[in-house]
Predict the 3D structure of the following.
Amino acid sequence: MIGYATDETKNYMPLTHDFACALVRRLEQCRKEKIVPWMRPDAKVQVTVEYEHSGKFIIPRRVHTVLISCQHNPEATHEQIEKDLIEHVIKVAIPQEWLVNTRYVLNPSGKFIIGGPQGDAGLTGRKIIVDTYGGWGGHGGGAFSGKDCTKVDRSAAYAARWIAKNLVANGFCKRAVVQIAYSIGIALPLSIHVDSYNTVVEGINLSI
């Protein structure tokens, strides 16, 4: 079970994850409030951020690429879809200072009329990567959604996130990943691993 935290956002989540969630929330708002009348419920987003190495730190500089695939009514043209997604979704969800020479990849497959269970059926515990950190820090493999909170797949992953977040929030380091491994029938963890990515703040002693 893995928890991750970074100081690049106020909620200690990766910037890419924050922007992807903001895009999805804005898509939902545009559909429900009919800001974009052609929009249908199904959608997928991906955000790529360009980082720069500064010594032992990595610093986000700009949004490199925004990918959105959005279900739409049959009469909507591709030109209208691109225009509305840029003006009503991307530029509202992502602050302008991050959109520097950003590449927009919008409905690249062409038509996206059939969506939801009709187009993509199955149940696999939702999306385990978006439920965590968008690929940052790794993933233990267990799904959260649908799991009872007594299962370590869920409870220990939340505990690992709590530890990682508090290490960053209290200024011990700028990034942290916490990995915990358990065995069925044994209460205490078999292993605990904490990695600060060499970002421990000068003068802080983390020895136990």
